[in-house]
């Protein structure tokens, strides 16, 4: 074994354990470091000192509000899953079908509400802002439940069900109309036997910018599309300044947390996961709180005894 290999091994070992120590003590620390803590009191200590908190949220948070994702077992709309409809190719081939799918998803959201996890995050942002501290939510969810709960500083990396983008002029606009256009009224039923609406392009949602009349599409990131570089720049800025990062309702081996959490952790910033189960990536983080985030998150983000609110 070369000197380089020995040195490298020692460096890795020290980085992993976080300190140089006697063999017995070192072993103990190693086993402790390898397992993230689920000690809420310890998390609360870190939380009380944090000035810039970044919260990365994923599908698990929406699932606890009963929002269908049309992915995985049983996740079908008619005979398709999201990855067959949420693509630029599917929209080019059959804009009527894709709009029926999104119209259905928008209408479903009328009956869905933020759950205790959404509410705890929004309440935490409101409270901490009065103390000169910041919270940012970086989400892959397109259902706007964070916004509905009152979250202000929100980066929707996958866009929103309630925004449209013109395929002609590129204009992006908020759109909460129900139905989004007369031709889609009563359409979009999810049952496999439903007859397709086959709506002509001129009757699908159209751009309202002066003289444009272009076909609108949902302002969401589809499979095979890249994330908006402006949103990504914002995300990078927030991850660079955060001094505590929470990963909620998504595992850290799954996108988007897989892209962001390891870079935060590599800076030595504490990362806390709140999700159903541990994954191999979990061991790289300071904390892991298993279980439904609607149960685990509210006590984690509640007012700390040291917080002074004027
Ligand atoms: Zn337009």
From TrEMBL:
Main subcellular localisation: cytoplasm
GO biological process, one term: negative regulation of reactive oxygen species metabolic process
Chain residues that bind substrate: 102, 105
Mitochondrion keyword on record: yes
Sequence positions that bind NAD(+): 58-77, 140-143, 249-251, 275-277, 293
Keywords: Cytoplasm, Metal-binding, Mitochondrion, NAD, Nucleus, Transferase, Transit peptide, Zinc
The EC number(s) this enzyme carries: 2.3.1.-
Catalytic activity: N(6)-glutaryl-L-lysyl-[protein] + NAD(+) + H2O = 2''-O-glutaryl-ADP-D-ribose + nicotinamide + L-lysyl-[protein]; N(6)-succinyl-L-lysyl-[protein] + NAD(+) + H2O = 2''-O-succinyl-ADP-D-ribose + nicotinamide + L-lysyl-[protein]; N(6)-malonyl-L-lysyl-[protein] + NAD(+) + H2O = 2''-O-malonyl-ADP-D-ribose + nicotinamide + L-lysyl-[protein]
GO cellular component: cytosol; mitochondrial inner membrane; mitochondrial intermembrane space; mitochondrial matrix; nucleus
GO function terms (MF aspect): histone deacetylase activity, NAD-dependent; NAD+ binding; protein-glutaryllysine deglutarylase activity; protein-malonyllysine demalonylase activity; protein-succinyllysine desuccinylase activity; zinc ion binding
Cofactor note: Binds 1 zinc ion per subunit.
Entry cofactors: Zn(2+)
Residues where Zn(2+) binds: 166, 169, 207, 212
Highest taxon, organism lineage: Eukaryota
Cellular compartment(s): Cytoplasm, Cytosol; Mitochondrion; Nucleus
Domain Deacetylase sirtuin-type span(s) in chain numbering: 33-307
Active site: 158 (proton acceptor)
Uppermost EC category: transferase
Notes on the domains: In contrast to class I sirtuins, class III sirtuins have only weak deacetylase activity. Difference in substrate specificity is probably due to a larger hydrophobic pocket with 2 residues (Tyr-102 and Arg-105) that bind to malonylated and succinylated substrates and define the specificity.
Role noted for this protein: NAD-dependent lysine demalonylase, desuccinylase and deglutarylase that specifically removes malonyl, succinyl and glutaryl groups on target proteins. Has weak NAD-dependent protein deacetylase activity; however this activity may not be physiologically relevant in vivo.
Family stated for the protein in its record: Belongs to the sirtuin family. Class III subfamily.
PANTHER family membership: NAD-DEPENDENT PROTEIN DEACYLASE SIRTUIN-5, MITOCHONDRIAL-RELATED (PTHR11085:SF10)
Name used for this protein in its record: NAD-dependent protein deacylase sirtuin-5, mitochondrial
């Amino acid at each position: 074994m070369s000197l380089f290999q020995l040195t490298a091994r020692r460096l890795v070992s020290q980085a992993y354990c976080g300190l140089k120590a006697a063999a017995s003590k070192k072993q103990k620390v190693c086993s402790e470091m390898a397992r993230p803590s689920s000690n809420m009191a310890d998390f609360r200590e870190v939380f009380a000192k944090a000035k810039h908190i970044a919260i990365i949220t994923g599908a698990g948070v929406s699932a606890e509000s009963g929002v269908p994702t049309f992915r995985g077992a049983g996740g079908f709309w008619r005979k398709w899953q999201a990855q067959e409809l949420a693509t630029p190719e599917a929209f080019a081939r059959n804009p009527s079908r894709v709009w029926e799918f999104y119209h259905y998803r928008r209408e479903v959201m009328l009956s869905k509400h933020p759950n205790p996890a959404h509410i705890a995050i929004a309440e935490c942002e409101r409270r901490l802002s009065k103390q000169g501290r910041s919270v940012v939510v970086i989400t892959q969810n397109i259902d706007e439940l964070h916004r509905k709960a009152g979250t202000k500083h929100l980066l929707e990396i996958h866009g929103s069900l309630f925004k449209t983008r013109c395929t002609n002029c590129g204009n992006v606009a908020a759109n909460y109309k129900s139905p989004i256009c007369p031709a889609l009224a009563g359409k979009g039923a999810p049952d496999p036997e439903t007859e397709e609406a086959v709506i002509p392009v001129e009757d699908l949602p159209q751009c309202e910018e002066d003289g444009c009349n272009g076909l609108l599409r949902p302002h969401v990131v589809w499979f095979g599309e890249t994330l908006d570089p402006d949103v990504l720049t914002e995300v990078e800025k927030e991850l660079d300044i955060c001094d505590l990062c929470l990963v909620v309702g998504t595992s850290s081996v799954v996108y988007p947390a897989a892209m962001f959490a390891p870079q935060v952790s590599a800076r030595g910033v504490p990362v806390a996961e709140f999700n159903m189960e541990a994954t191999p990536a979990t061991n790289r983080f300071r904390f892991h709180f298993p279980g439904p985030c609607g149960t685990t998150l509210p006590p984690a983000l509640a007012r700390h005894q040291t917080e002074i609110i004027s």
